[in-house]
Amino acid sequence: MNSFWDTSALLALIFQEPHTTQAQKAAAETTVAYAWWWLEVEAWSGVVRRGGNAEQKAACRKALTALAWTNFPRTKTDDLLQLNAKHGLRAADAGHLFCFMELSRVVDGLTLVSFDREMVKAAKREGLAVFN
């Protein structure tokens, strides 16, 4: 499976959370894992805010280096804003969803790995594949 990860999913690999087992399953089934470059900022901030220890910080660095990064050009900002006018997501979540949508047009079988209920709901409303 080609997968697109958001921060909620990546942090579930680093910390023991209710979705950790699902995140581990998604990671095991993934051939190529993609993410919007902003995930690096969010994930590292999440580890720091949670008081991550050296092992968790190392796990975060390892997970981040395994990702294939994507972005969107500034010229697509209006498209992102229109998408978010439909869904009303937090700004970063809108960015993740938009990058996932754009990348899903060129990467076959791309599946969103997220445990953020609002983002999952928006992705499903857009007819996009979501890891269960």
Structure overview:
The chain is α/β, with parallel strands linked by helices and 132 residues long. The chain has one domain (2-125): 3-Layer(aba) Sandwich (Rossmann fold). Helices cover 58% and strands 12% of the residues. It is built from 7 helices and 4 strands; from the N terminus they run βααβααβααβα. It has helices at 7-14, 20-29, 38-49, 54-65, 77-87, 91-104, 117-125, and strands at 2-5, 32-36, 68-70, 110-113.
Tally of structural domains: 1
Distance between the termini: 13 Å
Q: What is the CATH level 1 assignment?
A: Alpha Beta
Structural class given helices, strands, pairing? alpha/beta
Helix residue percentage: 55-70%
If strands are numbered along the chain, what order do they take across the biggest sheet? Answer: 3-2-1-4
Instruction: Report the CATH architecture.
Output: 3-Layer(aba) Sandwich
Question: What's the CATH superfamily, by name?
Answer: 5'-nuclease
* Helix-strand topology string: EHHEHHEHHEH
